Structure formats: structure tokens, C-alpha cells
Amino acid sequence: MNEFEKDVQSKTNDVIDSGFGFIFSFVFFSLIFFIGVIMKAVG
């Protein structure tokens, strides 16, 4: 067991963190996509 396994910075579950990252990136790219669709429809 190495020293990093003994002194952990974050005790939260990795699945929850990766889920938040996936949702944030999905919402971000969806927002950019819909802005592009609206611009194409208007212009």
C-alpha cells in the first residue's frame, strides 16, 4: 500500500464525481448546439 492510498484527499465516491462531470459537459455541449440551431434558424 503506497502513501497516497493512506492519505486520501477526497472521501467521496468517484462514480458521483464522474457523473457530475458527464452531466456538466453534456449540458454545456447541448447549450452550444442549441445556440447554433437557433442562430441557423434566425439567420
TrEMBL record:
**Membrane-spanning residues:** 20-42
Q: Which UniProt keywords apply?
A: Membrane, Transmembrane, Transmembrane helix
Tell me the superkingdom of the source.
Answer: Bacteria
Entry protein name: YqzM family protein
Q: Which organism is it from?
A: Pueribacillus theae
